[in-house]
Every structure is written in structure tokens, then in C-alpha cells.
Amino acid sequence: MHCPANGEAKFVAVTLNWDDAVPPSAVHQIGVVQEDKQFFLSVCLAPLWGGSPKWLMLIEFIEYYLLQGAEHFFIYRQTVDALTQTVLDSYTKRGLLEVIDVTEETKCLKKHRCRHEMQLQDCVFRARGRSKWVATVDLDERIAVNSGKTLTEYVRTTGEESRGELRFRCRWVLRLDEIPTSPSSWRSEGAHTPMAVWHNTSHVAPVNHTTKSIIQPEKVCLFVAPHKAAASVTSFQAKVEGMSVHQVLRFSPGADVFLVPSEEAVVRHYRYTQGWAFFLKEAETFGEFEETTVTSTLAKTLENNVHQAVDHLFPEETSS
């Protein structure tokens, strides 16, 4: 990762080696936004890409985390269809999220993984000074507190100042079908939200196995290494060891991680099983599957909010 290791960061880029030159086409710009207040909890969403339908999962994702107390969203966009773009435009106009474009270009062999890593570093920089805590999650992941508290309430009581990361263990909720491709097909199939349909849940994964995090971005450490080809002492690149997909790689001095007990909260990963047979076999080694859900009050409120959002964004056509 190459970018200045301070609050003046201007870009993020992914290269094969730390001292490779970064062509302009591979640079991901970071636009610093100054706001009047600092958010307490924000959410960074992994890059949206690929051809699978995302419009409904995205609405549910945003509405779920709003109910959890999130105040702002950083949504990373690589490729989206028209329906998903309509969703993004609507929530952007409401001032709830900002959309950050992710470049298509990368020399990495595992292209999506590299873009995800870049997005996470961008999230750390972008949220600094703007949000006290930030959840770093995927579109099909819901961090859920078992007591019925919201995430904001849980973080306020658990997120001590020295804790740079709250690390949550994962449970997979098996999603056997893809979401409907359009609002009309969704309505014709019963208008069910994903979280209301899928409940077959794996045992909790082992400690530090595919965990997800809520971090204090100010606590993520950045290590500076001089660029070998620097023309002067003021010209350098920074080797950033900040976030990985599943945990913080390095903390600022004095910060640490809190391993959240699974009895208190977990990540509910609504994993679409097609093409993931190897994952399912691994998940079976964790223990017995069981039917689980979020609290009935949360489930009912969420489903109502999703329905309202869909009806607002995509009104049902009526025959004259």
C-alpha cells in the first residue's frame, strides 16, 4: 500500500511491491471532507462489484445499520447496475452516505482481494476525524448484539478508549437462493427481506476465523518507510499496515483489541451458498447448525423499513 502516513493523505493505490512506481491510472484519490460534527458510528462497505443483484441487499444493509445507530456510510462502488445506483442516489441525497469509486485497474492476481484491501486503507484514512468508530463489513454481513441492544449502545459500554478494535466472531446464515433481480419479481415472490427468510445458522467460527471489526480509525498504526527512488528527503512513500479484511494489522501505541465474546455479539454472515461448497464443509466442522434470528422487534421494524424504502424508490405499477 502506498499513501502518506498522516492526515494529509491524498490517495491510495495497490502495487505488487512497496517501492513500485504508481501510475496515475492506478491512483485512488482521497477527498477529505470537513464536517461540523464527528459521527459516533459509521459503516464502511466493501466494494460493490460483479453481476449479482444487490439492490435489495443494499437497502436492507443500510436500514439495518441505521437501526443499529449508524449515522454515516462510506459505500465503495466498482460496478453497479441501474437499480443499485438508484438506491445509492436516494440515500446520498438524504445525506446518509457518500459513494467512493474504486478503480478497475490493478496488477494484482487476486484483483478483488486487492481492491478490498485498498478500500479498507481508504476507509481508515477517510474516517479519521470524522467518525469515532467505524464498522468494516461486507454487503451480506450484519453485526448483531445478542442482548437486543443496538450496536451503538454496545460500543458505548464496551469500546474503552484504549480499544482500537472490537473484533466479532462469525456465524454463517445459509442463503440458498439469490435475491430477486427486480422489485417487480420481488413482489411477485412474496416481498420477503433476506433476513426474514434465512435462519439456518452455523455454530460460531473459531476465534480469529473470518472475523469482522468495529475500529477506532485514529488507533490504526501507519508505518513509514522511505521510497528507494526518492529524489529528496521530502519525497517518500508510506508502507501502511492498517486494516486487513478480517482484523487490524497494527495498532497505534497503547491501543489494543477486544475479542468480543460470541455470547454478547456476532457477525451474522448471510452467505449465498452457490459456489461455496468448500466453505460449507468447513462450517460443518464448527459444530451443529441451528435456526436463529435477530430479536422479533428488530426483525419486524427492519422488514417494515425495507418495504417502505422499496415502495418509495420503486413504486408498484398499477394498471389503469
Automatic annotation (TrEMBL):
Membrane-related topology note: Single-pass membrane protein
Give a yes or no for keyword Membrane in this entry.
yes
| Origin superkingdom | Eukaryota
Fetch the Pfam families from UniProt. Answer: Glyco_transf_92 (PF01697)
User: Residues of the signal sequence?
Assistant: none
Q: Where in the cell is it found?
A: Membrane
Q: What class of enzyme is it?
A: transferase
The record's listing under InterPro entries reads:
Glyco_transf_92
Q: What is its main location?
A: membrane
Q: Name one GO molecular function term.
A: glycosyltransferase activity
Give the UniProt keywords, A-Z: Glycosyltransferase, Membrane, Transferase, Transmembrane, Transmembrane helix
What EC number(s) has UniProt assigned to this enzyme?
Answer: 2.4.1.-
Protein name, please?
Glycosyltransferase family 92 protein
Q: Which organism is it from?
A: Oesophagostomum dentatum (Nodular worm)
